[in-house]
Design goal:
2 domains; single chain; 20 strands; alpha/beta; Aldehyde Dehydrogenase, Chain A, domain 1; Aldehyde Dehydrogenase, Chain A, domain 2; about 450 residues
Length: about 450
């Protein structure tokens, strides 16, 4: 049966927040036609005019920060402080591309045998974004800000459980005087998105989400010769070497593991510690995890809210159960609490290694596997023993050595030294292997969905 509504459910209480009518096939056709026409007009606008829209969007985001943070807390359980920070980050990315987008897309002269030659960067058309629930605003704005600044239009198919955020994003752009139709939210179930991708008025598609979702979208995009960008899951290794500042490393690792209540693609997922400092790190890490405050995301004391849905919480628990059955030891947490809400406690597993689910699979929640390494080489081998390759970190007091390991030995799209991995408008972001392909943010992000066209003039 085809869904006629999308439901937003509060993961703290289990209560239905709202229901949204699914757009009909007729409405989708109207939106595609409107956006296709609007994009052609938008592409002809000056960079200054596009920048003005993005700056107004930043203002609107900041003016609605409390409302937007509360909506995310209700729809997917994000603690209010995290929600406010997410809104500010969205404003930042709008301002970043408003300030820098024109220069990033400036014509580039080329040497050739012609009188002159240059590369020009022109918008592709309408970019369809298939986005996840875990960062309901940031994931969208990090695609939309560069895409719109480049002269593209955007269409958003958001995760069904955050449809309120999806509607709010369209409202923010409308309130920022973006011409009607240049950004459109589609309220659709996932089963209907393949037809939209295949539509000739869609020029390209970007997806942030799970590996299966990425494979499905890439298959349809490839069959229709559409460029695509995929940012998928991760099992980010954080490697702690013998000369690391162990207390600092443990604090950074706890912070990264509990980012967004553990529901982040680039949260630390595997903690690989050389045996010389393993026991010291374990003690400090456990102490940090025990300090987390689990509770209602509207409570300012809460640092870990509920998981976004009950089924996701239950799947996470089964990964813990299967890991224990395979030989892992629970040091903290590991039990579903009584009472309402999709809560899961900060959990620490010891005696984890290859062949145990907590090592082999992505853990999308506040579960931390500790992995003992014999030495530096063994630690790096364990870090690379994964089908994923999104982010990673290395902790050492030898900055030169740490930089070399991050650059040349740990195989990921992002690797930081003595710091947690985080996306930043100024830095390219993306993964390798089963974590996807393509790069967002920085100048690479705005050039992802443009036509790099060669223009040459005869002698």
């Amino acid at each position: 049966m085809t869904a006629t509504t999308l439901t937003s459910t509060n993961p703290t209480t289990g209560e239905v927040i709202d229901r949204f009518a699914v757009h009909t096939a007729t409405q989708v056709e109207e939106f595609l036609a409107q956006t296709d026409a609007a994009q052609r007009v938008w592409a002809a606008t000056a960079f200054d005019d596009r920048a003005d829209v993005l700056r107004r969007a930043a203002e609107r985001l900041r003016s609605r920060v409390d409302e937007l943070a509360a909506s995310m807390a209700d729809e997917m359980g994000k603690p209010l402080a995290d929600g406010r920070a997410e809104v500010e980050k969205c404003a930042w990315v709008c301002e970043y591309y408003a300030d820098n987008g024109e220069g990033m897309l400036a014509d580039e002269p080329r040497r050739s045998d012609h009188r002159s030659a240059r590369t020009v960067y022109r918008p592709m058309g309408t970019v369809l974004a298939v986005m996840p629930w875990n960062f309901p605003l940031w994931q969208v704005f990090r695609f939309a800000a560069p895409a719109l600044m480049a002269g593209n239009a955007g269409m958003l198919k958001h995760a069904s459980n955050v449809s309120g955020s999806a509607v709010a994003i369209e409202e923010i752009f409308a309130e920022s005087d973006l011409p009607d139709g240049v950004f459109r939210t589609l309220l659709l179930p996932s089963a209907r998105i393949a037809d939209v991708i295949a539509d000739p008025r869609i020029a390209a598609v970007t997806l942030t989400g799970s590996e299966p979702a990425g494979r499905a979208v890439a298959e349809v995009a490839g069959a229709n010769l559409k460029p695509s960008l995929l940012e998928l899951g991760g099992s980010d290794p954080y490697v702690v070497l013998a000369d690391a500042d162990v207390e600092n490393a443990a604090a950074v690792c706890v912070e990264s593991r509990l980012t967004n209540s553990g529901q982040s693609c680039i949260a630390a997922k595997r903690f690989i510690v050389v045996q010389e400092v393993y026991d010291e790190f374990r003690a400090a890490f456990l102490q940090g995890m025990q300090k987390a405050v689990v509770g209602d995301p509207h409570d300012p004391r809460t640092t870990v809210g509920p998981q976004a849905r009950h089924d996701l919480r239950d799947e996470l628990h089964q990964q813990v159960v299967r890991s224990v059955e395979a030989g892992a030891e629970v040091l903290l947490g590991g039990e579903i609490p009584d009472g309402p809400g999709a809560f899961y406690p900060p959990t620490v597993l010891d005696r984890v290694g290859p062949g145990i689910p907590a090592f082999d699979e992505e853990l999308f929640g506040p579960v931390a596997p500790l992995i003992r390494a014999e030495d530096e080489d063994h630690a790096i081998a364990l870090a690379n023993d994964s089908d994923f390759g999104l982010g990673g970190a290395v902790f050492t007091e030898d900055i030169e050595r740490g930089s070399s390991i991050a650059a040349d030995r740990i195989r990921t799209g992002n690797c930081f030294v003595n710091a947690k991995v985080a996306s930043d408008p100024r830095l390219p972001f993306g993964g390798i292997k089963n974590s996807g392909y393509g790069r967002e943010l920085s100048e690479l992000g705005i050039r992802t969905f443009v036509n790099a066209k060669t223009v040459a003039i005869a002698k």
